[in-house]
Amino acid sequence: MEAWSRFVDTFFNWTIIERYFPAIMKGVVVTIEIAGAVVVTGTLLGLVLAIVRTFRMLPVNALIVIFVDAFRALPPLVLVLLVYFGLPNIGINLPSFAVLWLVLSLVLTAFAEEIFWAGILSIPKGQWEAARSTGLGFLATLAYVVLPQAIRLTVPPLTNRTIAITKNTALGTVIGVGEILNQATTAQSFSGNATPLMMGAIAYVILFIPVVVLGRLLETRFAWRRV
Amino acid sequence: MTTGAPPILEIRGLRKKFYDVEVLRGIDLFVLPQELVFVIGPSGSGKSTLLRCCNRLEEPSAGSVRVGGIDITGRSTDINAMRRQIGMVFQSFNLYPHMTALRNVTLALAKVLRRPRAEAERLGLAALDRVGLAGKARSYPGELSGGQQQRVAIARALALEPKVMLFDEPTSALDPELVGSVLNVMRELKRGGMTMLVVSHELRFARDAADRVIFMDHGVIVEEGPPQQIFSTPSQVRTRAFIAELGR
After folding, report:
1. Chain A residues with at least one Cβ partner in B under 8 Å
2. Among B93, B108, B141, beta carbon nearest to A134
3. Which terminal Cβ of chain B has fewer Cβ within 10 Å, N or C?
4. 3-state helix, strand, coil in chain B (%, to 5)
5. What is the C-alpha to C-alpha distance for residues B114 and B116, in angstroms, rounded to an integer?
6. Which among B64, B39, B96 is positioned nearest to B225, based on CA atoms?
7. Do B156 and A124 touch (CB under 8 A)?
8. Under a CB-based contact definition with an 8 Å cutoff, are residues B37 and B51 in contact?
9. ipTM
10. Which of these, B54, B57, B59, B92, lies nearest to B70 by C-alpha position?
11. Nearest-Cα residue of chain A relative to residue B156
12. Chain Cα centroid distance, residue B110
């Protein structure tokens, strides 16, 4: 029984929970803010790049592919440190919040671009031809015929990728962004107890489970009877 | 068939190369107003490419295609404006699966011809009515049979009031029992005076609806004439062989 009470005292210490609850909640707010900003900028930029790519301008597309491959290959932590400690040397001082947002947005942009691009490519050529044969221009065809279908297809993979990348907001802890993990580790070192870390873990679960469920709902809602 | 009127579709010296394969090797073909011209030939003979060059889904390598007297390959020609005068119906229907039948028909009316929503819907319903599917306006393509889908596709082209309609094997993807409904719609169009260029293997339909039959092989027109002549007394060996093969 002693082991059990030591376990509870280490991970679920009520006094510590009460003391650090406000700090963890502050972290939750910061995490939500950064994650939200990253989702918006990352998916929008990714969509824009995928659309630019459909114009098939070779040099531009080469640049997009290089960018996308590089940002998909690099561990986000490397990018976070590189930008946070590198940019000040060339006179650019970004707050740590902005660095985290920028890096994660670019990483999500890279993945989202690939997902949208794959979605666009998966729309049969006949859809383009049918629309073009009625006099619709390239952009109108893209906007009304191709993208609505492509985006439906991208919802499941994009949701998964978005969750994976927004979880990386935890990397902000190494550059002092006051998000959940940062608050938790700070509290843990002050209290000498792992309870704040458990609180952080629970906060992540509470935060992301609805997103996972929402993704599944969107998946069913966006599915339509295929021919 | 009107005589004396200038052709709606004039194809001259049309060539199409895919890399070093020449699929069309000099096609000359005129289609007169209200004429139904039927194109037959073995697969790979260039029939579909010929059709697709008529609205520049394929870019002709040489020669000219005129629709209503306007060269569609001309540098100053607005191809989107030309395409809405050239209806096209595809083998695989190519309906937009995320839109209702009505929206499939009204999309170009709204976005290309900029018709107000109410008017676009009225015209769309009228077009669906012409193919006998006004009752399916709210259905999605996935809820329709192949024959119904193809008729919606015909209505989509028809709604823009094209000068000529191109049919690229419109019944080849259909179950046999659904072919008739599509052919009936095409007969109705013919009766209504639509000018049509049809690539198909439905020889029975050609026999009773076509004004002229073109036999193509290896990228050239081998023989052309009224259906009775082509089917009963073809003058070319290749035509005879192809018809005998299909008739078996």
Report:
1. 124, 126-127, 129-137, 140, 144-145, 148-149, 152, 224-227
2. B108
3. C
4. 40, 25, 35
5. 6
6. B39
7. no
8. no
9. 0.93
10. B54
11. A134
12. 23
Distance (Å, rounded) from C-alpha B146 to C-alpha A178?
59
Asked if A162 contacts A120 with a C-beta cutoff of 8 angstroms, the reply is no
Amino acid at A212: V
Q: What is the spatial order of strands in the sheet that B9-18 belongs to? A: B21-31, B9-18, B62-67, B70-71
User: B150-175 pLDDT, tens per residue?
Assistant: 999 999 999 999 999 999 999 999 99
pLDDT digits (tens, 9 = 90+) for B79-120: 999 999 999 999 999 999 999 999 999 999 999 999 999 999
Which residue in chain B is spatially nearest to A127 when comparing CA positions? B94
Would you give the distance in Å from CA B78 to the centre of its chain?
Answer: 21
Six token digits for residue A81: 């440190």
DSSP3 helix / strand / coil % (chain A, rounded to 5)? 85, 0, 15
Taking the Cβ of residue B97 and every Cβ of chain A, the question of whether any pair is shorter than 8 Å is answered with yes
Nearest to A156 by CA among A220, A206, A209: A220
DSSP B144-195: S-HHHHHHHHHHHHHTT--SEEEEESTTTTS-HHHHHHHHHHHHHHHHTT-E
CB B31 within 8 A of CB B163: no
Return all residues near B234 (Cβ < 8 A) that are at least 6 apart. B215, B223, B240, B243
Q: Which of A128, A149, A227 to mutate to test the interface with B (most CBs of B within 10 A)?
A: A227
Cα–chain-centroid distance for residue B245?
Answer: 24
pTM: 0.87
